[in-house]
């Protein structure tokens, strides 16, 4: 009887040992799988291609010749789309006697543009008797013209001049003179009156 009890105890101990051993193996196996999965995940992450950040297109460059009552007259290089105000600031700003009222500071600069800043009270004419900021061929550049220059055109009053300036500020410079018909209030009939007196550059 005593022998049977001892055998049962041995069996129980052996069973416990086997259970503990199996549990130990199970834990080890689970831990190994977990680490393998972690390594695999890290490897996949390292293999993922990072999308390159697209480079911003480089702005085009324009050259503008600034003359007259600025601190440093000369030819300046600016990014396309900059304003007359930016160009004048690059030239050191206005001289104290500059007639700023005649200059449209909000106009966009264009390549090969000549900007003349008169002094107060100065009346400047070129060889054909036109104001200095008008083009040499007598046509008005609708991309740079001031409100008063636009109003000098047939059929263009204060409202239409303002519409032209607003349109070019919102949409960029006109590419062709025919584009002026896209301005509200200017149709084909108005263009027929304007086409021989305007240009773009």
TrEMBL record:
It comes from Schinkia azotoformans LMG 9581. SMART domains: HhH1. The chain crosses the membrane at residues 12-30. GO terms for biological process: DNA repair; protein secretion by the type II secretion system. This is Competence protein ComEA. Residues 148-167, 178-197 form the Helix-hairpin-helix DNA-binding motif class domain. Keywords: Membrane, Transmembrane, Transmembrane helix. GO terms for cellular component: type II protein secretion system complex. GO terms for molecular function: DNA binding. InterPro entries: Competence_ComEA_HhH (IPR004509), Endo/Exo/Phosphatase_dom_1 (IPR051675), Hlx-hairpin-Hlx_DNA-bd_motif (IPR003583), RuvA_2-like (IPR010994), Soluble_ligand-bd (IPR019554). PANTHER family: ENDONUCLEASE/EXONUCLEASE/PHOSPHATASE FAMILY DOMAIN-CONTAINING PROTEIN 1, ENDONUCLEASE_EXONUCLEASE_PHOSPHATASE FAMILY DOMAIN-CONTAINING PROTEIN 1. The lineage of its organism: Bacteria, Bacillati, Bacillota, Bacilli, Bacillales.
């Amino acid at each position: 009887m005593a022998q049977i009890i001892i055998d049962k105890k041995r069996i129980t101990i052996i069973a416990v040992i086997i259970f503990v051993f199996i549990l130990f193996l199970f834990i080890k196996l689970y831990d190994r799988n977990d680490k393998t999965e972690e390594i695999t995940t890290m490897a996949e992450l390292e293999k993922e291609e990072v999308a390159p950040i697209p480079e911003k297109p480089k702005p085009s460059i324009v050259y503008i010749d600034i003359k007259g009552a600025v601190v440093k007259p000369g030819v300046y290089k600016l990014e396309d789309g900059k304003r007359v105000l930016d160009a004048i600031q690059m030239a050191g700003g206005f001289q104290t006697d500059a007639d700023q009222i005649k200059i449209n500071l909000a106009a966009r600069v264009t390549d090969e543009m000549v900007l003349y800043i008169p002094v107060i009270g100065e009346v400047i004419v070129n060889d054909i008797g036109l104001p200095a900021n008008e083009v040499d061929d007598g046509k008005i550049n609708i991309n740079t013209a001031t409100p008063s220059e636009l109003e000098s055109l047939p059929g263009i009053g204060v409202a239409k001049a303002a519409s032209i300036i607003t349109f070019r500020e919102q949409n960029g410079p006109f590419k062709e003179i025919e584009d002026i018909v896209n301005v509200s209030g200017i149709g084909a009939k108005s263009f027929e009156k304007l086409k021989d007196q305007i240009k773009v550059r």
